[in-house]
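Review form for a predicted model. The reviewer records the input and the model, then writes brief findings.
Reviewer: anonymous (R2)
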Amino acid sequence: MLTKTARDAKEFREAGLWLDKTLDQLLSETIARTPDKLAIVADRTDREQARRISYRELGHLVDRVAVSLCALGVRPGDVVTMQLPNWWEFIAITLATNKIGAVINPVMQILRERELLYILNFCATKAFIVPKLYRGFDYSAMASGMRGDLPHLKHLIVVDGDGDNCFERQLLSDRNTAVSAGEDASRRLSADDMAVLMFTSGTTGEPKGVMHSSNSVIAFLKTLAGGIGLDENDVVLVASPVAHLTGFATLAMLSIYLGGTMILQDVWVPQHGVALMAREGVTFTAASTPFLIDICDAVKGGAPHPANLRVFMCSGATIPSALVVRAAQELGVPVCSAWGMTEVAAATLTEPSRAADKSPTSDGRPLPGMYIRIVDSAGKDVPTGQSGRLLVRGSQMCIGYYKRPELPAFDAEGWLDSGDLAYMDDEGYIRISGRVKDVLIRGGENVPVVEIENLLYKHPAVAAVAIVGYPDSRLGERGCAFVVQRDGGQIDLPSMQNYLAECKVAKQFWPERLELVSALPCTAAGKIQKFKLREIARAFGDGK
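Model under review:
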């Protein structure tokens, strides 16, 4: 008798959702079909002209990087960590790593020493690839300063560097032709093996490494393309960070799957981004609501209309209904709502034909191969329209948490408790109604609330602290810290933020409001009643 896992795998293969291919194989197939087609337009703020790369050239670049990684001693199963922006080098390294059977671990540019040291040591990262400079910050200097605390790290590689460890010398050198990466079948990943490792902030204060296989990623790409109606003729704007699952899978790898063209924008400047969309004929993009607001504002302010844009996919937080209407009226574009998480790219989607009536009131319905349950505290399904815990399973699901067997991703039946609260309507569309997990979402990014609270508890002036989100029309939420001061202690917002900067915490994780209180509301058992704080913070929306 087949196990539950084996039955699911059989189901997904028979349904054509698991293709048993790797990302590199998708690239090879496109090169064979259309070698001279434009694959990438890499737009950088520090370059006068964008670099334009055909599929044939991309294949050559991937081969050279793959051969060089092998020559550096990167082996199947080794982790390669990248902290790169939306540059073509990110795409080439991702596909080359996949080609040689190693694991790609993208990390966000906002992370600093505290977060990076944990991730790099936890993964025993073999190679760490960073930009020399990006948005005025010297990543090379930061990474070099960390080397003494990274015993497993063998290679630090710097894109745009000028030393021996620069990307061009280390990964594009002709000297490594003796190693054959492309034809060595022993290096090939199985489509069920871990191919991508992405860290997500949990409620325990310690990030979790979410493992995805080629099958889980490509199942998402296939069903998303089908749900929205995308094909090889589509031009995809990649402005969301490629180190985030939206930028990585929903945009960049989707374009590789389609055999389409991706437009990489490394710094989101709305006026320039909209002009880029118009110039390159962008037909599809995805991002959190601030991007869509910026696009509407830019067009209203005189930026060229992106006439070819057919669909905007929005996830990461609830989409204001007024924004769905505005995009339809001012851009002529349907906004497709979606719900996902790092563990599952997009379990639900509102199709373009229903966007006008469903995106303002729902987060979509399950894509093919994905299943949703909404249950009460006893695990029983709740009636339609009633809120409960959102459970999910299906073909896109991650394969577990890296080196964390004590954190089972699924129950015995394969269901993952998302930590979100939701309800379902009569047509099967869901609406996220709250979060069980203690994470606030700022601009589509999860803020690790517990970790920041733990750091603030170490501040000499802080006796107690609780962080909750308050509404913001652009970012969705911002963080507010409610603090009880110690006797004789004194803290204000600038000193709190300076303290977090000294702790090497990413700026985007800092609370942007501080409320001093005499006590935090608690239950009789001493548990902080954050719902009461959220009620107070709700009045702070948009700087009030």
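Findings: Confidence is low (pLDDT under 50) at residues 178-183.
Further findings: The first helix runs from residue 4 to 14.
Recommendation: see findings above.
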